[in-house]
Design brief:
The structure is a single chain. The chain is α+β, with helices and mostly antiparallel strands and 149 residues long. It has a single domain, classed as 3-Layer(aba) Sandwich (Endonuclease, Chain A), CATH 3.40.960.10. It has helices at 7-15, 23-34, 84-107, 123-134, 139-143; strands at 40-41, 52-54, 59-64, 111-116. It has a 4-stranded mixed β-sheet, with helices on both faces. Strand 3 (59-64), helix 3 and strand 4 (111-116) form a beta-alpha-beta unit. The termini are far apart.
């Protein structure tokens, strides 16, 4: 398949792809906040700058797009038919970087949850999964509004 845009136009389109505050991330943030949990956003001191950070719980959540992060066995994670070598290297590099960041966080004592874009299709199941991962809301977690992160 031939790209209908020239290189400059394609570059401009790709530059607008956001890495933070994406629609899937905003949905997860609203679910977590509505459930009573409080968090920090994109803590740059942590490997991979997790999307949501819960310092008092030592837990982080990444919200990954299925395409950009190569969600296994997901239809949305297919490599485009044009420039296969470029996309394969790019997307596999993203996946390898994600794995390194998650391993570094786990090694540092953090628990990691990855929420995939395709999981937003069933918000009830997702909310249960988030609650199970985050654990009960305690007065300490509600009051603890200050953190070194």
């Amino acid at each position: 398949m031939v790209d209908s845009l020239d290189q400059a136009a394609r570059s401009a389109v790709m530059a607008r792809v956001r890495g933070k505050n994406t629609k899937p991330e905003m949905i997860v943030r609203k679910l977590v906040f509505a459930a009573g949990y409080r968090y920090r956003l994109h803590v740059r001191k942590l490997p991979g700058s997790p999307d949501l950070v819960f310092p008092s719980r030592k837990k982080v959540i990444f919200v990954h797009g299925c395409f950009w992060h190569r969600h296994d066995n997901c239809a949305a994670s297919r490599i485009p038919k044009s420039r296969v070598d470029f996309w394969s290297d790019k997307l596999n590099g993203n996946k390898a970087r994600d794995q390194r960041n998650q391993e570094a966080l786990i090694h540092a004592g953090w628990r990691v949850l990855v929420v995939w874009e395709c999981e937003l299709g069933d918000l009830i199941v997702l909310e249960d999964r988030l609650r199970l991962f985050l654990g009960p809301i305690t007065m300490k977690s509600v009051i603890n509004g200050h953190s070194k992160y």
